[in-house]
Specification:
This protein has about 300 residues and is an alpha/beta fold. The protein folds into 3 domains: about 5-95 and about 190-220, 3-Layer(aba) Sandwich (D-Maltodextrin-Binding Protein, domain 2), CATH 3.40.190; about 100-185, D-Maltodextrin-Binding Protein, domain 2 (3-Layer(aba) Sandwich); about 225-290, Alpha-Beta Plaits, CATH 3.30.70. The protein is about 30% helix and about 30% strand. The protein contains 10 helices and 16 strands. It has helices at about 15-25, 60-65, 75-80, 95, 130-140, 170-175, 195-200, 200-220, 235-240, 265-280; strands spanning about 5-10, 30, 40, 45-55, 70-75, 85-90, 100-105, 120-125, 145, 160-165, 180-185, 190-195, 225-230, 250, 260-265, 285-290. The strands form 4 sheets. Strands 4-1-5-12-6 form a 5-stranded mixed beta sheet.
Amino acid sequence: MGDDYTVDLVLPKGSLEEPTFILFKEANLEVIRRDREYNPIIDDPRIGRVKILRPQEIPKYIELGYFDIGITGRDWVVESGADVIEVAELPYSKKTKNKVRIVIAVAEDSGINDVKDIKPGSRVTTEYPNITKRYFDNLNIPIQLFFSYGASEAKVPEIMDVVVDLVETGSTLERNRLKIIGEIMTSYTVLIANKNSIKDDSKREEIDDIKTLLLGVVEGRENVYLVMNVPDDKLNEIMNILPAMKKPTISQLYDSGYYSVQTVVSKREINVLIPKLKQSGAEDILELNINKIVR
């Protein structure tokens, strides 16, 4: 680990790499790298050494103390068996905004509709051998386990009988004429920390700061700041239809018979809400993006 007053950080390579860099940039913790180097820098006094590695490797390196904190998938934490602290869930990319699942699937015409119906000795392919072995051991179903280097769904039924795979919607399995018959666990992107680092007062403070900034961006992305002018006689009506994290800020406009109303609203509601506000008498409605929300 680096200086006692900084934390060493490891970030994921691959599909999470670009959205992770965007997240850190929006948190004013920009990852600065040349070409595809694996040792970038973050110009912040709280962050020391930075490394980019495969997410599968990150949990063990955090456990061993090579880094203080890192970002990876919960699936890789469980698969590796790493003894680390989950600091925060970070649903910041399209892939992880909805939690993903590790599922068991078989060919549509296999005649198998439940995991318990899988025959002993069946060939099972997966990128999660440890998770898969524990699961079938608990069911007392002996299997032949084959590690998969990708495209697991393509191997059933000609080469393999069962696939254990990570899915979001399951559409890829369906396109390959496979059906899901069970679920092992859900997964999501996590910020994890070394146990000793968390116990160190100075490092824990830095870790909490970084967590606060990242979560602030995640929450800010999900909401907008809404500003509008409302006639005096329409104020109560507007208040009845206006959702908010807390009560809106209301201030009377000078010598006009209007109030300025300001509040934070979820992006999921905004396109339905704005026409209702206009129909109810709100004027000069402004929708503004939010960089961070820190609770």
